[in-house]
Amino acid sequence: MIALDRNKVVIGMSGGVDSSVAAYLLKKQGYEVIGITMKVWQDDNDKDYDNDKDDGCCGLSAVDDARRVANKLGIPFYVMNFKSIFKETVIDNFIDEYINGRTPNPCIVCNKRIKFGELLRKAHSLGAYYVATGHYAKIIKDDKTSRYLIKKSSAESKDQTYMFYNLTQDQIKHILMPLGEYSSKEEIRNIAKEMEFDVANKPDSQEICFIPDNDYGKFISERNASCIIPGDFIDTEGNVLGKHKGIIHYTIGQRKGLGISLGKPAYVIDIRPEKNQVVLGDNADVFSQKLIAKDVNFIPFEKLEAPIEIKAKIRYSAKPAEATIYPLKENMVKVEFNKPQRAITPGQAVVFYDGDILVGGGTIVKSGE
């Protein structure tokens, strides 16, 4: 077994400004830093996954950007192949979730299984105790419980703790996130400019890395067209209103792009994959005060034994809302909000907070009772 060096860290370098500055900060702090870009896109001649473009967070230009930063910092740099495990754990899951009427968040799966799973194992194989990223969050240790906690970033508008609710104690204790202490993205860009990094003004990526054009429907259709079958739009009473083009094209709360005119605004309020139906209703029907979540993980403690009051986010961009979570069997919880929430969406994560501390979260199964 390889002895792990607490002074050695592997950092995932995407070629962006955040991971570049994070690598610089770690070296400045005295760590022995190794830069790695994870190659997660298949080759151009792979018919199953032909998306190895010269753009995005893992394209050729991104690799070149990361390598230039590493050379400037004088740290070792490697490009490593994570294509197969990424396809199996992230992309295939993404497609399967949409086909089954759910709206997934692939970044959450990637963080747990790839960045803090496979990359952490690779770091350990190189003798590094830590793996680091350019995410905006803080890792702290609770001296009273000896548990590792995740705390919101000082840059509130950039906070990314929502993405880490499902990490384990063994993962968290091996993670470094040096950007969490900074109060704004502008500070990070200024550091990059001072270091004369070419990526100092590089724009942030806004889309899912493996779908650069943001067209989910097209991406899924090209890979699993046989599962995309037109079906019925229905109302809450079960009356057929028209035809939809396949449930992968819709998500809870959606109003635009439905391809149907009812003489009044219509919203997707439910998706029923077992019947291939999309239920339409009024805006008021989109709101719900309760949800059930599965595969729940808690960070400050091992298991929820009794109801607790927290604040919860039902999607990455949502504001935390006051709620109570109740333990259920089979690693599930019921979440009851003080006020109704708009578009609670199966497949998305509901994430819990106690002030700035990330309490945990789970995958939304359904809204209502």
From TrEMBL:
InterPro entries: MnmA-like, MnmA-like_C, MnmA-like_central, MnmA-like_central_sf, Rossmann-like_a/b/a_fold. The active site is at C110, C209. Residues 158-160, 315-316 are annotated as: Interaction with tRNA. One of its GO terms (molecular function) is tRNA binding. It is found in: Cytoplasm. Its EC number is 2.8.1.13. Residues 220-282 form the tRNA-specific 2-thiouridylase MnmA-like central domain. GO terms for cellular component: cytoplasm. The record marks H135, Q348 as: Interaction with tRNA. GO terms for biological process: tRNA wobble position uridine thiolation. Residues 288-364 form the tRNA-specific 2-thiouridylase MnmA-like C-terminal domain. Keywords: ATP-binding, Cytoplasm, Disulfide bond, Nucleotide-binding, RNA-binding, Transferase, tRNA processing, tRNA-binding. ATP binds at G12, M13, S14, G15, G16, V17, D18, S19, M38, G134. It catalyses: S-sulfanyl-L-cysteinyl-[protein] + uridine(34) in tRNA + AH2 + ATP = 2-thiouridine(34) in tRNA + L-cysteinyl-[protein] + A + AMP + diphosphate + H(+). Its main location: cytoplasm. Catalyzes the 2-thiolation of uridine at the wobble position (U34) of tRNA, leading to the formation of s(2)U34. Belongs to the MnmA/TRMU family. This is tRNA-specific 2-thiouridylase MnmA. The gene is mnmA.
